[in-house]
Design a protein that fits this description.
Length: 44
Amino acid sequence: MTTTAIVMMIIAMVTVWGGLIAAIINLARHPEESASEPSPPVEL
């Protein structure tokens, strides 16, 4: 592999893995709210 290919591969890997890590951190800080989901029906 050429130097250019290695640099581009590293940039792509940092973009993908960095985005994944950012998404995990964002979801941990702001979890999805279940209040907007309807409650299950209550059987009598």
